[in-house]
Write a structure and sequence with these properties.
Elements lengths: L2 H4 L17 H11 L1 H14 L4 H24 L6 H34 L9 H23 L2
Helix pairs in contact: 2-3, 2-5, 2-6, 3-4, 3-5, 3-6, 4-5, 4-6, 5-6
């Protein structure tokens, strides 16, 4: 056995560098400020980073769809009053926060805990993707829901 053999990794990998997941608690801000659609997108992408199965990712999408429908219904039946934009944003904040608390954090938590128990506690920054999805998708979502409910 040569010294070169000692420097080889003992666990085989596929050679790909996998992106680090985002902190689950940080996703709350995306859900709160962006609403259900941006929160669902970030949670779905993070589920892939956490190597969650197709069933968990499907549950994330279904929970996001249910929260978006609830958001649309709340906006439709809410009295918009003098400031309709504020009412839409308030319902987006509420449904996004509830979506994170009731579904998104609970679906991702077991995989995140297992990852931390294995000693991998580093996370990627959510600032760029979170801000972009909150601003862009959040604005499109709020305008779209408001327009659909006013037809």
């Amino acid at each position: 056995m040569s010294n070169d053999d000692l420097l080889q990794p003992t666990i085989a990998t596929d050679g790909r560098v996998r992106p680090k997941p985002w902190r689950i608690q940080s996703q709350f801000y995306v859900c709160f400020f962006g609403g259900p659609i941006p929160g669902t997108l970030i949670a779905f992408l993070n589920a892939k980073r956490l190597h969650l199965g197709a069933g968990a990712r499907r549950n994330i999408v279904l929970a996001g769809l249910a929260a978006t429908v609830a958001f649309a219904l709340l906006v439709y039946f809410a009295p918009l009053g003098e400031r309709p934009g504020r009412t839409v944003r308030t319902w987006a904040h509420l449904t996004g926060a509830l979506l994170w608390w009731l579904a998104l954090s609970r679906i991702q938590r077991p995989a995140d805990l297992m990852r931390n128990a294995a000693g991998d506690a580093e996370y990627a920054s959510l600032w760029g993707p979170g801000l972009a999805s909150s601003l862009l998708l959040g604005a499109i979502q709020n305008l779209g829901v408001w327009a659909l409910t006013r037809l």
